[in-house]
Structure formats: structure tokens, C-alpha cells
Write a structure and sequence with these properties.
Largest sheet: 7 strands, mixed
Number of domains: 4
Oligomer: single chain
Shape: elongated
Number of helices: 10
Structural class: alpha+beta
Distance between the termini: 104 Å
CATH class of the largest domain: Mainly Alpha
Radius of gyration: 37 Å
Amino acid sequence: GSLYVSEYFSQSAQKLSFYSWYGNAKLFHFHVPEDTVLLRWLLQASRGKGPECTGMEITVHFRHGAPPVINPLGTRFPANATVRPSYSISITLSSAVQNTTFVNVTTPAAGDWFIAAHLPEAAGRIEVKGFSTPCPYMFQADMFVLRLTDMPVLEPGVPMPHTVVSPAKPLHVKVFVPKHASGMRFQLSSCVTSEQRACSVRVLLGSITLPQSFQRSLTCTGSINCSLALDSPPWEKWLQIVVESLGTANASVSLEMLASFTVCRPGSASSFLNFISLNQSQAGARPGAAGSTAPAAGEAPRNASGQRSSCLQSQPVVREDLDVVSVRYRLLNGPSVPVSSLSPTLLLLNLNTGMDSGGSLVVNLLLNKTSVSLANATVAACVSAASPVLSLNATRNCSTAFSQGYPLSVSTSSGEAMLIVLYPQTDDWFLSLQLLCPRGQGDCVGAEAKVTVFAYLTPCFNDCGPYGQCSLLRRHGYLYAACSCKAGWGGWSCTDDTKAQTVGAQNLATLLLTLSNLMFLPAIAVAVYRYYLVEASVYTYTMFFSTFYHACDQPGVAVMCIMDYDTLQYCDFLGSVVSIWVTILCMARVKKILKYVLFVLGTLLIAMSLQLDRRGVWNMMGPCLFALVIMVAAWVHHGAKRRHCYPSSWKRWVFYLLPGITLAFIAISVYAFMETNENYYYTHSIWHVLVACSVAFLLPPRDKHKKPWAWSQKLTCRYQICQNDREELYAVT
């Protein structure tokens, strides 16, 4: 009997995210070995046990050859992009903490398989790290494969007898498709059962791929021969054939199988891609000629002398790797390609390195209208994977034996055509072109069109446009690219303007977020008036960098960056936390020497913590709480020393401290709980205004023994920098 081997492949679990762009989908990359007859996915989803965890629906997408192209938000794809729905399932986590799901695929295609999983659409609320604990949703995908180690090989042109033991044990065989096969014919004959009755079998040719499967089925009943002809089978690949018995359980079935190919062979050694068909004598000498199909459409008739006629005209193409997921295809004979009506012109686009499926394949055709003498002639083109389309004049749907290509056409009325293949599967891709005439190919004899071909692989089409950012994503060693959109734009390449902000709205957002920082001017004026020059310097620093950080942080066209974005962001965060730090310490009214030591030491520690985690809530809350402890301790000390409450004035509490504290609490509430992606530009502007106003209210009054703006008194002595008073004396000796 046959020897089966089971193998198991596992990858570490990933934490799922709510979906807003492709980077939120967690990708799993597996490789299915050859001769696999059964593939089983084990999908395990789990959630945390905390009260914040609720029921959730997880969407899982599958695809062979490339990452799945998904559209959970229902946005628009770019024009000329090819979109085919992904195969997906839903896993629900309700009351159960864990869910285990199995997905089976019989006779799967060998090679790369991808799984992408994500949660529903993101709510858009901006979460402050540390204020809320999101529920962890975990997902893990494992793969079991059942592989046949001794799968029989069906040799082309050689009849092969086989036996199907029982309906429970189907027969698996494979045949290798040569590189230049234009057609294949499978024939089954001499089918009898062990009970000498008419047999009934079902034959499955090809492997299953997702999201679309083009596996061909053939049902044979009785002893008569049955056959199936395939156009453009996949070149240089093993083709699986499964024979299942439809008879009684105990009866075995004997049969004979034959596979034969029609081939376009390379015709000249001088051009390594110039293939010409076999002449009649060569075809007759082949063992499988009896079962060969008719010549490929577009092939010129062979005459009695056996003159070679061209099956297809191929143009040599050089693949030029530019960067990660970035390839340019250069035609050796120039960008202009001659296209005739007699046979298709073929270009090979190599995308089989295993690292090319994470980008977008772009094919652009430009017709030289002066080269076409026929006004109504059309150049039809097909872009297909695994095998080329060689019958463009017979059918326009660009289908091959086991895949569906993508049609293109250019004519004198429409001289340009573009095709974008999102995440092209790992394979050899082909571009076929042929000149078609509306009245028949007889009118096109001798005519030739010149078509300029531009083909390239890019990480993101059009670099995601002006309202998107192309991000290179990684899953272990596999790299793929996706667009992250901004300013309300959406879609795969950020071309969907359904929810886009207008330029006026973008300008308004920029003005609000930048000019709201000018509310620090009253706080700076109060600090200078009360002689808190260090504090005023910190507020000026914060106002400056917050203004220009938000001018650089805008998603749309209203952007101005005076320096590196990361530097501006760091300086903005540092200024914000240090402003709170120095304000609370100033309110504490500690001795100046201690205050300035705490200023410097606290600023250094804040700078360190922001470098460790810039968005952590404790980077702001930690210094605030520590400064509040110092302030409370200082106020208690002052109150005990004076034997009454501190600050002692009720006016100070009613008109300054309580309004300042109220503004600060409202600002923190807006910052932590109200900000979303949609309202960010005005809620964050409110945060700027409230914080700046609270600082102006909370700053303590100046020392009673100091007169404002007494600059002349400060410079009366040449050597004495600071005034002599009862508390401190600084003398330069």
C-alpha cells in the first residue's frame, strides 16, 4: 500500500488588534510540501479573563501563494486594481475563553500559504497607555499535513495501468508539466471492476487553492474511454491527479491512464525565449502525439514540407531588483514590443523568489497609434500566473487550465491600459499580447502594432499617494507592504475619499492645534511678572516645541516640519511634563536652592523616562504625584510653622487655586477619556488651552520683599549677583 507521512508545523501565537489598516491583521506564513494530500489547519483563539474582556468575533482569511487581499472596512480599491474576494471564516469568542476550529483542505497546492486574522473595526478612540487595560485576544495557527511519500509518476505519452482498491482509498498520481506546454490531454480507458461490472470513477485534476480553486473534475462511467483537454497547464509543475471509485465498497477498479502534451519548443539558440512550435514531423514522432490536442489558436497552418511556424513570439526580459519588494522588468529589445495577429507575443515576469508576493505588480501598456494601419484593430493582452494565455483570439477571459488571468486591451481609441495586481502570488507571471481584428484575423495578416510595456513590482502602488504612508511589515523573515492612510482617506492605496477631510478642514485642524499653544503667553507673562524666570523659560520652550510638533504631526497637506519629527515629538513631550513638574514645585514654595536642585534633577529623570517609554502614562503621572507629595509636605510644614492653614488667604483659594485645579482636572479628563481620531484636533486644542490657563492660575504670587521689574536694583553692586535677604545670600568672592 501507499506510505503516508504526517507532519506538523506550528507558529507562536500573536495578539490580535482591532482593524483600521492592513498592519492590524496578524499574518501567519506556512509552506506546504509537495505531494500533500490533506492539509488541516488548527486555529486556536483565546481571550483574557478580566472584566474588560467581552465576546468578540475574529475573522480569519486564507490564501495560497500570497497574503490575502482583504477589505473589512468596505473601502474602495484603486482604479485598475484586480480584486478577488478572500476566503474567510469567523471564529466567535462569547462565553468561552477559548475556541478551537479546524479547517481541512484536500489535495492542497504546494508552496506558500498565508493566514491573516484580525478583530472587528477599530473604534477610533485614542487610548492613553496606562489609563485603561485592553483585553488581550490571542490567535495561533498550526498546520498538519498528510503527505504521500511514494506517489506514482505518470509519464507523458505512456499508458499506465492502475488499481483503485476501494472508494475509501483513492488513487493519487502526479505528472510533470514541461516548460513550454500549450495544452494537455488526460485520457482514462480500460476501466473495469473486480466484479467485472461497468466501473464508475471520478477524476480530480489539479490542486485546491484559496480563495479560488480551479480543480477540474471528470466523471467516467462504463468501459468507454473518457478524456479531458486542458489549455495552458502550469509550466514546470507537478500536477496531482486523484481517481476516486464511485462503486460498491468491496469492489476494486482497474483502469489505464494516459497524459499527453502539445508543446511549443524553443526554436533558436540565439534567442533564449524565442519559442516556436513543433513541425508536423516532430509532433508525429512524439510518443504522446496520438492524444495531443489541436494546435494552439493563432498558430499558422503547417504545409506539406513541414516548414516551422511560430507558436508564439517571446521577448527577452531582464529582472532588475531595486530594493525590498521592488523590481523593475527591462526588455532587452527596448520598451516597444511588436505585436502581430499570427501568434501572441510573450513576456516572462519572474515573481518566484518567495519574497515578491508582498507588493503590487503594475503592468502599463501604451499603444503607438501610428504603428497600427487598421483603424478598428485592438491589441488584447492577458496577465496570468503559472502559464501564459496562448489563445487570445479565441477567448477574451484570459483563463488557463487552473487559474484565471487578468485581461487588458489597447486600441486607437483607447491607447493606454494599466493593471495592478495586489499581492501577486509567488510564481512565474506572463504577459501575452496579440493583435485582433473585428472582421477576423484574415484582415490583420501582415499588420503589426508597437506596444510600449512598463512592468514593475512596487511595495505600494503610487507610494500610497499624498494621504498615505507605505509601511514595510514583517512576519519572521517574510516582508510585505501596506498603506496607512490619514486625513480621513481610506482604501488599499489611500484613494478612497469618502470620509476625507477637505483642505479647509486640514488647515483648520493645523491652526487650532498650533495657535492654541499661544495660550501659554498669559502664563509666561504671569511668570515673568512674578519673577519666576526659570518657569517662564520652561513654558516658552513647551509652547515653541508643541506648536511646531503639531505643525509637523498633521496628516494632510497643511504640514510644516522645522526639524526631524521624532525630535519635535520628544521635545514636546519633555516640555509638557517638565512644565507640570516646575509648576507644582513652584507652588510648594520651598527654599530656592532646593527648588532649583529639584528642577534640574527632575528634568533629567523625566528625560530618561521619556526615552524609555514616551507614551507611558506614568511618565507624566509619576513626576506629578511626586511633586504633589513635595507640595503637600511643604504646605503642611508652612501651616504648622504659622499655626494656620496655608495658603492662608481665602481669596487665594477662591480666585486662583480652585479655578486652576478645576481647569487641570478638566484638561486631564479631556486628554485621557475624550480624544478620538475624529475629534483630536479640537479636543487636544482644548487640552492646550486648559493646561495653559491652569498654569496661569496656579502660579503663586511673588515674594513680598521683591519688587517687579526691579532690574536696576539687581545691578547696583558689581560683584553681588543676588539681593541679600534673611533667607539666602550668594556672594562671589
